[in-house]
Amino acid sequence: xxxxxxxxxxxxxxxxxxxxxxxxxxxxxxxxxxxxxxxxxxxxxxxxxxxxxxxxxxxxxxxxxxxxxxxxxxxxxxxxxxxxxxxxxxxxxxxxxxxxxxxxxxxxxxxxxxxxxxxxxxxxxxxxxxxxxxxxxxxxxxxxxxxxxxxxxxxxxxxxxxxxxxxxxxxxxxxxxxxxxxxxxxxxxxxxxxxxxxxxxxxxxxxxxxxxxxxxxxxxxxxxxxxxxxxxxxxxxxxxxxxxxxxxxxxxxxxxxxxxxxxxxxxxxxxxxxxxxxxxxxxxxxxxxxxxxxxxxxxxxxxxxxxxxxxxxxxxxxxxxxxxxxxxxxxxxxxxxxxxxxxxxxxxxxxxxxxxxxxxxxxxxxxxxxxxxxxxxxxxxxxxxxxxxxxxxxxxxxxxxxxxxxxxxxxxxxxxxxxxxxxxxxxxxxxxxxxxxxxxxxxxxxxxxxxxxxxxxxx
Amino acid sequence: xxxxxxxxxxxxxxxxxxxxxxxxxxxxxxxxxxxxxxxxxxxxxxxxxxxxxxxxxxxxxxxxxxxxxxx
Lengths: 459, 71
Prior knowledge:
heterodimer, A: 459 residues, alpha/beta, CATH 2.40.50.140, Rossmann fold, five-stranded mixed β-barrel, five-stranded parallel beta sheet, 12 helices, 49% helix, 19% strand, B: 71 residues, mainly alpha, 6% strand, elongated
């Protein structure tokens, strides 16, 4: 083979010698084998494996054909690619090795791998490919971890890591966007759990691929569509349990960003026992399984229902307490009024009693005095009888004398007169007018006179 | 937050406010019956909303496909 390769490359281009196709192919094969005799490690991303692996069971040697690609740094475009093949035995050994390193790690599209390869040339068709012999699982795990860490750091730096957690999850999110694969166990588990709760949940369902390369397209599209729906309270992203390598899609930037930027709170249940994907980390709330997400929502509804019942109870007791307080206040006021009235009534009654008492005492004293006086009277009468009546007789005689003395007739007889003007006794000059007729009573009759002049004298 | 949950949240906030007023004796006896009636209505509204229907699932697949084809 080696000599045949040299035969062609060393040939004189001008010579009129030509090679058959098989000669060319074999010569290329020989050259490749000489140059690439040893196996070597290749780092790249697996593509086209998932679909082809389904057919491997029908192949005699169980081989799988796929492609190893390299992407442009920081971009999604393919820089280079090469066909690859793994024979059934190597395939099984590789799967076992990955599983031993991490129970849920398996070969699949999108996975970054480090593979031990040999250049394989199928000369009849000039088919060049890499024959995969072995895998370094630590590279894959390390790469997944590194990519994940980098994405987390990047999102933190851009303020996107906690962004969705900042959205407002209503007390009871009843209208939910649901993103999952139609007919999957995740879909049934979630819907049935919610249905059995009896709460009025309403789901806006979007069918999306939850594994394989389509995931990276479907999930962000669905998130964007539901994010724009004004009726939705929260978006639920769920999938059944899968391998860790299935989860690589939820460590992808596109999905993580779509979750972070969703205007609704995103609740994830993408089913992984050990690690949380980046989508989980940036989501509003994350649970391990679809059922757990449903339970979270039901719990929230139940809590709310309980708090409603509490509110109703508080309302009833609050009103009762309030009315009780009012009644007590009224009762207190009434009692105070009653007591005050009773106090003043009894005060009056006491005063009255005291007055009666005093009256009685006074009356008795007065009676006693009177009795004393009247009881003593006859004795005194007997003792001072004569003197008593003599005194009265003397007093009477002197009264008579005075009366006789003051008799006007006696005064008239002595020469005094009484003057009447207009029928009235005139005592002063002012009682009489000039020209007026006046009467003067003397001891034995009346004299009528006309007043000529008046002269008042100073007293 | 959707419009539905907004009215829902508002209703609940109003109930809480009335309860607070009741606890602190801020509500006059004259307006007591009116407030209590209102709170009872709101609680009833919230409770009914929680249980008014069975689970409903609407597919918005068509919407998504439209969005995809637009891109």
